Amino acid sequence: MTHTWQIITVVDAARARIATARIAADLGVSVVDRTRLVTALTEQLRQCLTKGGAWRLTLGTTPPSGGEEQPRLWVTVRPDPDERPHEEPTWQAQVAAPERGGRADTVALRASPPAPGPQQATFAPSRRPALPQALGFARAGGTPTPNLFEQGGPPLTAPAESPSTSSTRTSVRHSPKLSEQGAPESTHRTPLLDVRTLPAEALAEALFSADEDTARVLDALTEQEALVAFHREELHQTNQGVLALHAELDAAGQAQRELFAAERAARTEAEEARRRLTFLADASAALTASLNHGEIVRLLPELLTPTYARTADVWLLGDDEAEPSHAPRPAAAVLAARTGRPQYAAPQPGGLPGVDDRPPSALHPTRPLLCLPLSARQVPLGVITLTPPGDRWDPDDAVMLIELARRAAIAIDNAQRFEHSRDIAETLQRALLTELPATPGLRLAARYLPATHGLNIGGDWYDAFRQPDGSLIAVIGDVTGHGLHAAVMMSQLRTALRAYAVDGGSPGRLLTRLHLFLHHLQPDLYATAVIARFRPGEPVLTWAAAGHPPPVLRTPDGRVHTLDAKPGAMLGVPVQQEIEDHTAPLPPGSTLALYTDGLVERRAYGIDPGIERLTEAMSTLAVPDRNGGLEGAADRVLEPMLRDSEGEDDVCLLLCHVDGETAENAGTAGEPPVP
Fold this sequence. Notes:
Elements lengths: L1 E6 L2 H17 L4 H21 L3 E8 L9 E8 L11 E6 L24 E2 L8 H5 L27 H4 L3 E3 L16 E3 L8 H89 L4 H12 L6 E6 L14 H9 L3 E3 L10 E3 L10 E8 L2 E9 L7 H38 L9 E8 L10 E7 L5 E8 L4 H19 L4 H15 L5 E8 L5 E7 L5 E3 L5 E3 L19 E4 L5 E5 L1 H4 L7 H12 L9 H13 L9 E8 L1 H10 L6
Parallel strand pairs: 1-5, 9-10
Antiparallel strand pairs: 1-2, 2-3, 3-4, 6-7, 8-12, 9-11, 11-12, 13-22, 14-15, 15-16, 16-17, 17-20, 18-19, 18-21, 21-22
């Protein structure tokens, strides 16, 4: 339905304005939207009146469309089409109209019957006096005030008041109040202005002026709404930012927790890897510290149990001393020894890297077995069989155990090769050491102790033999180097010395010839030696030394002397030398001690303190008797000297004792002792 008003005068504009407000209220337009619509319409109508001429205000509704849920109330103002038919509307507006039902006190719109063409309605205001109430005027004595804008209504003059109405048209300025004693206070009543005395143009102007004030209030309200909207948008943006920040913090927290978990896992894995590497390094050092394969075999289970294995059994091939060869072995252990690959025997596959899975062992059907081959230089040495400390092995632990078995095999192989070489060298050296000759008036006792640590066999040697003139040559020496090569060189020196002694010659001359022999035969090998010559019936000792510790002589009175005359250089050094002879008194009952550096030298304090200890040990000896007393004396000398020895070098000791009775008898007869 469409409503149309023609605007020519201010009264027409006021009527159209009031009708628009009432229609908007009846259609359920909100108070704020209705006030804004009416205020904007008033401003537009004022401009139209200022321009002059006839104007037409049209008001209508449109049904919901285009996604809208409510109908729309629209208003347009344009020049009168009868006068200016081609001009467009100068102003138009629209608001949402919920179309709620009108109240009893709302203005009724009376529409004429529809005519052909667009439906229009002519404004016919009701006779109810609503305008004075809208303008804020009070009714007098409950009597209805006539509508001042009604067409054909009474003139705008004040009618005669009836006594009933004249006495009641008053405004209460102060409400009566009771005093503390209950007496009412005095009141003053002021007569109100009668709206009927005002012209219609004045009322219209007043109405438009009120709309101007309303427009200012609406402008202020618009500014406040804009400010509220701005703050609401800021608050919304802040909330969005807070939500985004919380989301980012949650994501950062989750990422941090994941990083912490990954770091803990990596740290745990690194600690486990370090623990395995530390164990592997310590176990390897312990296994390679010994050159005794039996000790390595005993140490290996001690290292593995109980951390990495509940039980550990080492099986060396061909080692019958450890266990009889006919002892039954698990099939997985036999297969590991044959193939050289680790084997895992259990009801379920182990999934261990580098390990072959096998059925459970018939000897141990309820226990998983991990059989690791011990191979070195592509030669199988044995197998180590392990049972897990728990239900099964960790794959990383299995890799570590395989590496440990490889290192243990190398240590066992090195120890076996060392023991084999040492046994050969010791056997060769003992075969080359001569038996001491029996000489009247002179007793000899010798001791040879091989080194217990390291391959130090073959360097030390002693010898005693007669010369054609009846004298006895006693010699003790030490060849640099160890092992088979040193033992062979010692044998050659011993043979050369005996050959040179056949032609005679003093001890110094014999050492000089040995020096030339060794220098030409083995330029990179050196030796030290001491030669002592005993002549029957002659109480004089002739001796010579080449880079060797000095001999120690104990006389019958119990005094001990160190024969420390200047010795020659070592045998075989690239220098020309003539080694000198030295002599010392040798009364009957004297004892001469020849020895190698293994008896007196220690790494901690050198060789001189060891020589002093040897002199003390010699001074405490009693005069040895003829019934094996010299052998016991040799043992009594070795006992205090070897208490602090680590067994890193060979030890040779040769004691030569001159009997007093034999020497005296030989001197009385004037004949040398029988060789």
